[in-house]
């Protein structure tokens, strides 16, 4: 595993753990033979004298770093590994609240304020007895939208929202709040997310799909909002509810190019691709619950560069999904090691469809 002199000097000066780890691997692999600086050599191999690690440069061994530097490299590598392991374990513990079966409720169904805003005089279709229906059918987690960027409210219809949350808790369900920022008003987005946390929910999800703002600004504000969210609420379980990568990577490259996967990677505990195979046509080859779910989970992990990234798959839309579709969705979720699966959304999901999620129950 040859390392260029420039990389070695950069590692020595900045103590970069990645380069340090590479050096350690070289030392272990070569056993660092004993020699002297100035002796002839070939390639870019490694050796040592009584005080230094040597590297072959321009045909001669030259001093690269002292044993003290080497020890500090090892220490830095070990510290980073320990810190990363601690971060990973903490994230996995937080992710556990989104394990199992779930369903989704949005403000179009439960919020009188938003429904009247859209259509004067209209009334919510969602009622509290639907909580019993969910739970009796095996659903363990309710994902509920708490606000809309179009309205100034920090949370919509607080008293009713609290009643819904309390009812779910009484039935032994977890409750995750979610919100869709449009990235036009960062302060407003922060205000609504803070109000959601103040409700004392089990976790929160950031619904990342708005393309209102210009791409560069959109990415910037998404990353900034996500960093703020993690820094402000370090112990809160956070889910990134993301567009299906089959759409953004395969079907429509103009939808959200340069999505900042790696910037978001350390900030979220769970990744929730909106794998709505029902939005695809049979002619596309993607209207298949198993194929579409599998591909989206795989692509989320590939984009993150983490084959073990924690995924909870979101499927639907339920009203046009067949029993075979959902069976494929569940099979893909099980095979790919997703921690949970849920259907969008409750108002269009049947109890039989909820029952099909049973293999994902935890």
CATH homologous superfamily placement of the largest domain: Glycosidases
Dominant shape: elongated
Structural class by secondary-structure content:
alpha/beta
Mean pLDDT: 91
Q: How do the strands line up in the largest sheet?
A: 4-5-6-7-8-9-10-11
List keywords for this structure.
TIM Barrel; disordered N terminus; 362 residues; alpha/beta; three-stranded antiparallel beta sheet; 17% strand
How does this structure look, described?
- The chain is of the alpha/beta class.
- The protein has 2 domains: 5-87, no CATH class; 99-360, TIM Barrel.
- The protein contains 14 helices and 11 strands.
- It has helices at 5-14, 17-30, 67-95, 107-110, 112-118, 129-136, 158-170, 186-198, 215-232, 245-251, 261-264, 289-304, 323-335, 351-356, and strands at 46-48, 52-57, 60-66, 100-105, 141-145, 174-179, 203-208, 238-242, 270-275, 312-316, 340-344.
- The strands form 2 sheets. It has an 8-stranded parallel β-barrel, surrounded by 6 helices. The chain has a 3-stranded antiparallel beta sheet with strand order 1-2-3.
- The longest helix has 29 residues, at 67-95.
- The two termini are 44 Å apart.
- The model is unreliable at 1-21 and 23-30 (pLDDT under 50).
